[in-house]
């Protein structure tokens, strides 16, 4: 049976005002990396493994914001760019193309949620019920924006897509799924997905090698020998962890992140290309795009100071140029600082005369003379003091 | 018993970058230079703070301690709290939920003050206990 898939990266139907649901700093959560690979590719990988050969991703995001597969990874999707208002219309066109190319059924999935349903079971359910449209719902009956549409029912598909998978024409059946589902509504859900994956509650596998039990390290990552990484943790490709840094409690450092000296990172997801400054204490957060989402305080903080939290360019030549510039400017800056910087050293005020005089107790009293050490007095000369003795020494 | 010295409450600006921090330091400098200054910084309006802001707070703290005074923070906005936590400076200050509480804390004896101390997380307490008690154990082991 020929099944094709359309993945739609668009805000939910309820979010008409563009309140930024399912986004992190303007980027759809579907594009965010989880343990080394974007969510949208994780979903596509699962579908490809289930036998879906053709997968189209429709997005209204700019082309340069689309996630790229790291070298050596496959990119199993075809991208379709559309305008912000035309995402669902583009989905209709793609559905028509799939229908004309001989597909039997088309899976339409708005990401949306990340879920690990059994594709074969879902398809079998759809075929057995002989419905035009089969929608998926979670255990509580909430829609998951996933449906299987018979490819011959183009009008039904068009109706469903025009109503953003909220209304359906004709007969449709619900398929209830009780397995793993993460709604990916905000950065907290993204963090939860990473934690669940590290704890092996999902089928997401970290991209990299398991350097020690529970610690996964991506290709080209550099961890200083004095840094501590406590499992479970994920260190992505090309990440730099500098001296005395501590990475602990399900921390995930996505690719090209930098953790500077002495920084403690605990229960945090660090998004790609982020820089964490030296000597910080970053806990229970998601960090990226010069922002920090702190969960205990339920607040988002924009940090403009790149000494604290910075962001490197995603383009390699620009990163190389920036590194070269900082290297070249380092020595002149040090010389300039040494010559022109004001000294912050403050000298103590002059001590009063009474204090400057040596204490009388420090001078030896006249009546006591230093005894001359006798050689025959025993093992320890009398004028020696044993400050600390160990065992029988 | 009440202290005779006045407590000065100063509201901090909503942005604490290098320029604003310098201006704020300039404003509070006369209060810092008094004998045993008693200061409360109201941080409710802080929306953005960078390393210069934290540095300024530490400088004020150093100046106040040099003159045997006290500097307390009150009504931290979530943003300020996150930045202080991030830079590990939250543990250096006494932090109160409101300026009133901070001012009252100056007017009490030590036992009364202890009751009104900011809530310290149990994790920090445990960490501090470990630091205190681990040294004698280690030296005894040696």
Distance between the termini of chain B: 48 Å
Strand content of chain B: 5-15%
Rounded Rg of chain B: 17 Å
Q: CATH homologous superfamily of the largest domain in chain A?
A: Spore Coat Polysaccharide Biosynthesis Protein SpsA, Chain A
Greatest contact pair? A-B, 18 and 14 residues
Tally of strands of chain B: 6
Q: CATH class of chain B, please?
A: Alpha Beta
CATH architecture of the largest domain in chain A: Alpha-Beta Complex
Please identify the top-level CATH class of the largest domain in chain A.
Alpha Beta
- The shape of chain A, in one word, is elongated
Main sheet of chain A, how many strands, which sense, barrel?
Answer: 10 strands, mixed
Q: Give the total of domains of chain A.
A: 2
Please mark out the parts of chain B with pLDDT under 50 across 5 or more consecutive residues, or reply none: 110-115, 137-142
> Which fold does the CATH topology of chain B refer to?
Transcription Regulator spoIIAA
Over all CA atoms, what is the radius of gyration of chain A? Answer: 32 Å
Q: Gap between N and C termini of chain A, in Å? A: 85 Å
What is the succession of H and E elements of chain B? EEHEEHEHEHHH
| Level-2 CATH architecture of chain B | 2-Layer Sandwich
Biggest sheet layout of chain B: 4 strands, parallel
